[in-house]
Amino acid sequence: NNYRLFFTTNGQYSHLAAEGGGVNSYFSSSVFDLKPIIPIISSATSETIGWVVLKYVSDISTDVGGVINKDIVADINNSPTIKTMLMAKDQVVLLGDSIFGQPSTNILPFVMQGVLKKRVYQLGFGGCTMAARPSEENSGYDSFGFVSIADAVVNKSYTNQENKASSLGYNYQISELKSIDWSKKTTILCNYVNNDISVGIDIGNHYNSETEIESLNKTSFLGAQTYGVRKIIEKYTNTNIIFLGAVFRKIDGLFVTEYTNSKGLSVFDYIEAESVNSKKMGIRFVDMLDYGKRNIGNLDDSTTDGTHFNGVGAEDFAKYLCAILSSYDISFAV
To answer: For residues 334 and 324, is the Cβ–Cβ distance under 8 A?
Structure first.
């Protein structure tokens, strides 16, 4: 199911509603205690035109037309909570694959915004990899991998992504990407691996400070990681990058720790390589293979399909990521 958040009006009252089957079961009751901050998104442009603090959800079966006063929802002085979030001097960017993506159903960044009172940008591109994949240029996926996004951010040129966003359903993410103010202190939580292992990306070579950046093998897992990090950090020196080894999913019916890809590589090979490479670059890495004690028997408790979060899974992961930021003391004490 897809869930949409929108305003509906009933006389003089307005409330936030969600459309789609089983909405109330999608959101756990405890999520409202975290006061998620939800964007109001224009269906015409995919741009965020305002914000609302989620306090409850109603379940309806048909689309309900509602009129939003754009001037009111865009006026941050109407909410001290939203104003605090938008005026914060630091921000978080979630960059990776569909674990961060699925914007129609994934409340991960919105819960984090409620907890941190910081802007959290959602740049999850389902199906994409750390490594560049020239063979996927026609399908569009290569334009949204780590290498291509790093180039777009550094060059402040998003034409390539804009031309391919609609066909892949990435309009919202690209709107988010273009709105980031990189002059602010930024922490990027970067999570790949999931698709790199399933499509059989070569691991490649570890970071070597003597290797010219343009000589890196961007079609390898580690070459792409090194390339993206160096590009972004050299351009935006006030940016922290934390890589997450968040891999808890099914591949071909197997739990990821039991899976071996076409190159004979396991998830442990990728995680170990990414951890070592991050250390060599002076970048933080969090090994999350054991996160939440996920296994083939309990994945359905936290996911919709064995891979992507349901409401409970997204809420738990959001709190976990906020705790990571707090533990690293990057101005995100919660």
So the answer is: no
pLDDT tens sequence across 260-274: 999 999 999 999 999
Nearest to 38 by CA among 73, 64, 65: 73
Cα–Cα distance measured from residue 287 to residue 278, given in angstroms and rounded to the nearest whole number: 11
Lowest pLDDT segment from 43-52, 157-166, 199-208, 228-237: 43-52
pTM (2 d.p.): 0.86
Paired sense of beta strands 254-255 and 250-251, if any = antiparallel
The C-alpha angle 41, 14, 169, rounded to 5 degrees, equals: 20
Amino acid identity of 10? N
- Do residues 145 and 132 touch, judged by C-beta distance below 8 A? yes
- Alpha-helical runs (H) found in 103-158: 108-116, 146-155
What whole-number distance in Å separates Cα of residue 67 and Cα of residue 73? 11
